[in-house]
Amino acid sequence: MNLKRDTYAIVDLDHLKYNVELAHSEFKRPLMAVIKADAYGHGYKEVASFLKDIDYIEMFAVATLQEAIELRELGINKGILILGAIPTSKEDIDLAIKYDISLTMVDEDIKVQISKQDITNKKEIEGAKLKVVDKDGNNIDEWTSGKEPHMIKNLNVGESYTLIEETAPQGYKIAESIDFKIEDTGAIQHVVMYDEHLPVKVKTGDDNSYQYWIVSGLLSLAALLIIRFKVKREQQ
Predict the structure, then answer these.
(1) Total-model pTM
(2) Phi, psi angles (nearest 5°) of residue 133
(3) Within 13 A of 34's CA, how many CA atoms are on the CB side?
(4) What would the pLDDT profile of 114-134 be if each residue is shown by its tens digit?
(5) Among 107, 117, 127, which residue's Cα sits nearest to residue 184?
């Protein structure tokens, strides 16, 4: 069985050069040749070899570290930027430094997880109305607590914010507000606000003391009336 396909692509390098010249004439700026994904099917080694001697093409962009190293081995001395998978191992980082390859740096979103918990069992409390304000008192976010902590994104690093409980769930006291500052880290930052239970009124014997005295007085009065009735009867 012949598995070879009859389809193929013809890349006209003269047309490629025309497109590059047209882009440069339009923007009048140095260009970066993005040739990731095998130059989008055109053959990144062949395209890079053809474009490397054009003065206003200052950099090449590829998808992987391996592609970048192969361009260096082709004799390309211009800047190379990796747009795709960022090397994370020490070995890969050392290779990127060795071959003078630029890496794309990505800033993680600032994430703050806010948890509303019962102070006794540390479980999430539903039904608390909460909000976060900035140092000027502007509302940043507001929500009602649920079974899971609430997540806020993209707060400003170094800025201070305040978590406020507007309404506590039934049976709980409103907690004091919490000030927190955003750190410069990609890790999730945690803010926990605890709610205390409202005091429970316990009934004791002392609460019914007034009833005791009323009953005692009525019994005493009844006893006096009975004694008086007997004395009067004996006198007759």
Answers:
(1) 0.52
(2) -125, 155
(3) 5
(4) 999 999 999 999 999 999 999
(5) 107
